[in-house]
């Protein structure tokens, strides 16, 4: 999530160290920035709506002996920035406190800001007012708050700085006679810290006492709303079509005649069924235990779990911690299309399992602008084979995982990818035939990739708007997705059966949040899915859900009738989610939906 850091020294901080720490923090969030400083016997807060490295340059706090920084991925409260100050207590926080709204009543106080972080200062004050000790502040905060709390709490009146976390996204190290902390260990090694250790629990440091108010510089409020509040209208909701389509389907699974490259045999069974090889047959778990043995470490984390916050990676993280007994780092790439709910589930799981979360956050405004450019181009010449351009930006996930491996020194990756999630059809609509022997692969053959690029280029020529600033972003992401060598990785679901009921029941035990607009639990952390599935359904009469449920039928997990009933429910347009998507990319709901509805259907109508 956000990146936080601090240097607590008796002499002016090193400019080089400060720049390194600020730069690294920015990897974790770059929506806004903040500094907390001590100079001339006073504490100061500076906040800005631009990157932290720029703020450091502008404020130039090089004569200060205490500098703390915050590089924010905004999740709660757009109108506030960090550090927050309340009752003259300063806080910088990484994480999302998922129950903050309910806590205000418990402590008998009222929020003054929108941001969840404020509750940390308020609980601290409440604890101290009720006669609690400084030593126990963190226990009280962590007992009450659900979700990740990795923070620094500055109490000038008492001359104390507390740094604490419930998931380990916080490290501390020594350098000469100063102390430094950061969200990750890597920048601390870069500045040459010794005795670097992970902070799970609390460290209490002495800082100069001051009874004066923390001086807070007025902040600018950003213009682009990165976390729009949902405003709904019946008019818009009614624009969304959901027509029952009468369409020929495979007699065994649900795939319809509009599925690319589908062929039915004399019994009406499709080639996807006839070529299907069972996927959900786990190998003995002992094999995986043996494979990972040499990666285990006595101290520190030993594997990376790619972590989107969706149901499969959340369940995978649970298995890695609870069953495989490993100490993972959960790696998340936030490109601006992780839903608020997805972010909250990331926070819940990491806090509950005590797992460090390394997040790489992209330039969210830019990424969303790219989506808007591509969506506008798409709407000018709608082509189902080009829908995937809307999610091209997330492929940089594969680039950043390499950075995370390098920075943590951990090579082992354990993936929780659902074996039944196969969506051939997206490239199928572009003209790429299904490759039935495919397992879950992360590397596509070069020739397949070239063919894909060729067909896509042809489709792009139909709408010149595709040749926009995002093109390099798309191509470079795909390059990393397809061509970088992947080593030291295993799939959790090669060893544990993927059983939907078990997955959902397990996640419920973590209070995993479900979506308000669908009964489905798949893809609810992905802000793009509701919209692209709306396109597929409206034009082709099926969605990803049909392909997923069809695999479950083939695996013998559910009957065809049950699957049919499920997709009828799951394919319903998800208005709040589609609205969120179009709001975040800044597109007009009515215009976009009317354009989608007007696309000629692929089925008799
Ligand atoms: N990404 C984060 O860690 C967010 C911290 C806090 N919830 C905020 O919105 O600022």
From TrEMBL:
CDD domains: Gn_AT_II. The keyword Transferase applies. Its EC number is 2.6.1.16. This is glutamine--fructose-6-phosphate transaminase (isomerizing). GO terms for molecular function: glutamine-fructose-6-phosphate transaminase (isomerizing) activity. Residues 2-210 form the Glutamine amidotransferase type-2 domain. Keywords: Glutamine amidotransferase, Transferase. InterPro entries: GATase_2_dom (IPR017932), Ntn_hydrolases_N (IPR029055), Rossmann-like_a/b/a_fold (IPR014729). It comes from the Bacteria. It catalyses: D-fructose 6-phosphate + L-glutamine = D-glucosamine 6-phosphate + L-glutamate. It comes from Oxynema aestuarii AP17.
């Amino acid at each position: 999530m956000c990146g936080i850091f601090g240097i607590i020294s008796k002499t002016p901080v090193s400019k080089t160290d400060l720049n390194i720490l600020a730069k690294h923090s920015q990897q974790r969030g770059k929506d806004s920035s903040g500094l907390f400083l001590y100079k001339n016997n006073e504490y100061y807060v500076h906040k800005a709506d631009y990157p932290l490295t720029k703020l450091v340059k502008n404020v130039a706090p090089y004569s200060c002996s205490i500098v703390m920084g915050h590089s924010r991925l905004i999740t709660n409260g757009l109108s506030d920035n960090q550090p927050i100050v309340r009752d003259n207590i300063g806080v910088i926080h990484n994480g999302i406190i998922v129950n903050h709204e309910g806590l205000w009543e418990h402590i008998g106080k009222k929020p003054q800001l929108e941001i969840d972080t404020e509750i940390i200062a308020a609980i601290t004050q409440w604890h101290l007012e009720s006669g609690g000790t400084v030593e126990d502040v963190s226990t009280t905060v962590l007992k009450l708050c659900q979700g990740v709390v990795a923070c620094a709490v500055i109490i000038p009146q008492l001359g104390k700085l507390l740094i604490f976390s419930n998931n380990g996204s916080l490290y501390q190290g020594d350098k000469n006679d100063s102390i430094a902390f950061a969200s990750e260990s890597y920048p601390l090694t870069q500045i040459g810290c010794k005795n670097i250790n992970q902070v799970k629990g609390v460290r209490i440091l002495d800082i100069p006492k001051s009874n004066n108010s923390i001086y807070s510089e007025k902040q600018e409020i950003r213009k682009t709303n990165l976390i729009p509040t949902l405003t709904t209208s019946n008019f818009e909701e009614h624009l969304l079509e959901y027509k029952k389509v009468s369409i020929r389907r495979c007699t065994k699974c649900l795939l319809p005649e509009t599925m690319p490259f589908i062929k039915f045999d004399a019994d009406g069974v499709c080639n996807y069924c006839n070529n299907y090889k069972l996927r959900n047959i786990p190998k003995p778990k002992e094999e995986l235990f043996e494979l990972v043995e040499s990666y285990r470490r006595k101290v520190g984390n030993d594997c990376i779990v790619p972590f989107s916050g969706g149901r499969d990676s959340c369940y995978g993280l649970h298995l890695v911690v609870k069953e495989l007994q490993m100490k993972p780092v959960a790696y998340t790439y936030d490109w601006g299309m992780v839903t608020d709910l997805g972010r909250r589930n990331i926070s819940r799981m990491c806090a509950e399992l005590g797992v460090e979360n390394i997040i790489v956050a992209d330039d969210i405004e830019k990424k969303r602008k790219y989506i808007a450019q591509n969506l506008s181009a798409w709407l000018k010449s709608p082509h189902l084979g080009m829908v995937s351009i809307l999610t091209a930006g997330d492929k940089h996930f594969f680039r950043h995982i390499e950075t995370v491996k390098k920075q943590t020194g951990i090579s082992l990756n354990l993936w929780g990818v659902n074996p039944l999630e196969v969506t051939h059809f997206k490239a199928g609509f572009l003209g790429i035939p299904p490759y039935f022997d495919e397992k879950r692969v992360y590397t596509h053959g070069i020739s397949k990739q070239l063919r894909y690029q060729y067909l896509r280029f042809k489709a792009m020529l139909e709408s010149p708007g595709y040749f926009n600033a995002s093109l390099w972003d798309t191509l470079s992401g795909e390059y990393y997705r397809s061509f970088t060598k992947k080593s030291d990785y295993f799939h959790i679901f090669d060893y544990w059966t993927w059983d939907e009921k078990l997955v959902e029941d397990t996640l419920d035990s973590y209070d995993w949040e479900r979506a308000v607009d669908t009964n489905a639990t798949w893809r609810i952390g992905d802000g793009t899915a509701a919209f692209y599935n709306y396109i597929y359904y409206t034009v082709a009469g099926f969605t990803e859900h049909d392909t997923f449920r069809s695999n479950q039928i083939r695996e013998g997990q559910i009957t065809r009738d049950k699957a049919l009933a499920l997709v009828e429910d799951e394919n319903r347009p998800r208005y709040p989610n589609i609205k969120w998507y179009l709001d975040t990319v800044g597109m007009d709901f009515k215009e976009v939906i009317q354009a989608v509805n007007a696309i000629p259907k692929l089925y008799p109508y």
